[in-house]
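Possible regression after last week's pipeline update?

I re-ran a chain I had predicted before the update to compare outputs. Posting the input and the new output here so someone can diff against the archived version. Not blocking, just want to make sure nothing changed silently.
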Amino acid sequence: MTPRRLGWPFRLWALAGTIASPALRLLLWRRLRAGKELRDRLAERRGLDTTPRPDGRLIWLHAASVGETLSLLPLLQALCRLDPALHLLLTTGTVTAQILARERIDAAGLGPRITTRFVPLDVPRWIGRFLDHWRPDLAVLVESELWPGLIAGCAGRGIGLVLLNARLSARSARRWARAGFVARRLLGAFTWISARSAQDAARLRALGAKSVAHDRDLKQAAETLPFDQAELHRLQSLIGDRPVWLASSTHEGEEPCVAAVHAALSARFPTLLTILAPRHPQRGDAVARSLPQARRRSLGQDPSAEAGIWLCDTLGELGLLYRLSGIVLLGNSLAEGRGPGGGHNPLEPARLGCALAAGPRMQNFDEDTARLTAAGGLVSLSGAAAIQGWVGHMLDDPPARRRMAEAARSAAAADPDLPDRLVRRLLELLPGPHR
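New output (post-update):
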């Protein structure tokens, strides 16, 4: 592609990033102390890397966090299968996503083909170091990773840009609309945008994006979450026929609501097991302090024999926990949670035959939520009393739970051909052999 500049707003952003770089260095050290960075890889956040770039063509893919990273795995496998000479660079923005990505890539036998790194912060010099070192032939950003400095850096070097599985909420669309010229330039830098839904595609077009397709959600192509079969059998034997439910991927402010539901239900179900799985395992200590009676999986503790909360502050075990419970409340969706909410992927537990409930803030998965709700596989609830009533009903009426779970499973049917369709389009956008 021909290198091009995106205009004065992006030069102002670059200036602001340069001025802010000392403060961002301090931020990185604070994140390190909080367990949100890795000490031996902190330099990657400033674009510094001594790893040699592999010869040949290289596609760089960036996924911010766990959900986006997991959605890319089928695409990575398809890229490696359809172009055996291609090398891939996968960056993430969180430690959890980085660890999970490496585990899944190595388990799939793709380690030699895929390099994993942390994305640098959006400072011109740091982005420039990264791009000049890796020299990607194509840059693929996932969902809503619209960093002006990163995009301007690619455009200025003639690196083709793709926005994959693009999502844009109504709220974000209104904000970007106020930016006008900036939004048009930013979105116009992309050669191709593949939106996850018709709604997202329409919002992107309204902001001035070109070459926008609606190719469905990559999460619909994801494989079922992995699990340890022997551990599942052990835990099933340990739990037996006890009533059990799971609050998955919870965020700050939601755990007290889950604890209140457990306390209320324990009077009716004396051996009730409530499994609580925070989205970020590093919050385990803080959650445990608020629930001093909870057993902790990260400490090797199994559930208690009596009614109790089992805090599963571990990484990559939702596939195990969904199969163990069958009744799931989706976190990051409750009104009690701090932050904007937005939910987490409801298709993962739906495909495993779980009856689902969520709070009112599922806007990041509105299309999937609507489909599951219409099919009768998910209910939207607000407040501890409503959650208590639903969980109690699911525990009291196993046939109703099974009907709901089967409805969720049917509505979450996968689209296994989607990764291959997207990959063929990506390969068409690649330039010739790497110079």
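Follow-up from reviewer: compared with the archived run. The longest helix spans residues 8-33. Marking as no regression found.
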